[in-house]
Structure prediction request, 470 residues.
Amino acid sequence: MIRKKDARILIVDDEDYMREVIRQALEGAGFEVEEASDGKMALAMLRQYPYNVIVTDIRLPGLTGDKILEEALSLFSDTIVIVMTGFGNIQSAVEAMRKGAYDYLPKPFQLDELVVRVEKGLEEQQLKNENRRLRVELQNRYHFSNLVGNSSAMQNLYRLIGVVANKNSTVLIEGETGTGKELIARAIHYNGPRREQPLVSVNCGAIPSNLLEDELFGHVKGAFTGAHQHRIGRFEEANHGTLFLDEVSSMPMDLQVKLLRVLQEREFQRVGSPTTIKVDVRIVAATNSNLLEAVEKGDFREDLYYRLNVIPIHVPPLKNRRDDIPPLVRHFLDKYCKDQNLEPKCVSNDAMKFLMAYDWPGNIRQLSNSVEMAVALSGDRAVLDMEDFPVVSKPAESPKSLQAIDIPDDGIHFNTMISDLEKRLILQSLEVARGNKKKAASLLHLKRTTFVEKLRRMGMESFSDETCEI
Prediction:
């Protein structure tokens, strides 16, 4: 919440005593307070400075309280205006509420009550400002011009996103795992007409099929064992906004029928309810498999495919746009150096050549994870080289090759070799698992807590489980 000493409050009342007692109460609560004895004076002060809160009487000589309200909100729409009214003037206070007043207090009132309402109003004002700031951040973060890549394929993708974002048509994004399909979905939403409305994401492949219907449509109390209260689904949450259906190809056939109905009729029923609910939702779906092949195999409904594939967007894999690798590497270097409070780093020419030659089966996500690991393990070195990217350098030796190690006459440092092997195994497991710590731990038959502790000792505790950039 805004600090009380930073919140400026204007009291407008033609009674000197009234202004005095209100000022003392608010200053005693820690606020900075100014006074105006009539509407004309208040108006001049408002035009000089945007006050956080205005406490004004309705009946004033000259310019009335409702005129002050209108002027204050026209100058600064977030102003909290609390009107005071005498007995018999409640209707005027109600009218002021309709015009945008935050609250009203009938005289006489308790000063403590006024302080509480001022504090509550400031909290709501702060919340609105914070929500507005977050919306701007999201829009800037997911603006399609911030997507990284200069290749002709990416330039075509930027142009397509720019056109699609301003439409309400259903979009199907196809691309390999890790190509940034969700980032594109967010760019479409936050650059379109529904940007002020919610974007709700559902990973259809991560939710058991028997729970997916409830996740999408919600349920009513008593619909099944354990349904102790009503629950709205993702479609209702996304009403007037966008619903992103990731891995839509994994949706079971019976649920595909219900999704088709929603797309056709823009209505559905909660689980256990006969009531039909209307929704206005834009659908953006994504898949890492070929949906048309799934249709031919009978695994996906043909009619649903054509309902989803109104505007298709194909995201090319990284191996098909290798010219984008250098700018992506620089982007991730800047990001992770800032995240880890490190000085800027760069990649040697030789290392960059190997990075560009590698096929990156995990695409952008794998590249992001590799750069993050390299930054985390590079210490104070400003230039990253081949050894910082084990995914493109010589793979770790297999147990068979380890048996052929020659021990020189002066011996070897056992602990150093074991530590080096452990480090290489952990890096390799993270590469195979594409950065997922739980899966990487499973590959090494370690508990996740043990694995995370080893990462901590290696200085990689900030390594994220998932990164989605393009």
Notes: The chain is about 45% helix and 15% strand. Residues 146-316 form a domain with the Rossmann fold fold (CATH 3.40.50.300).
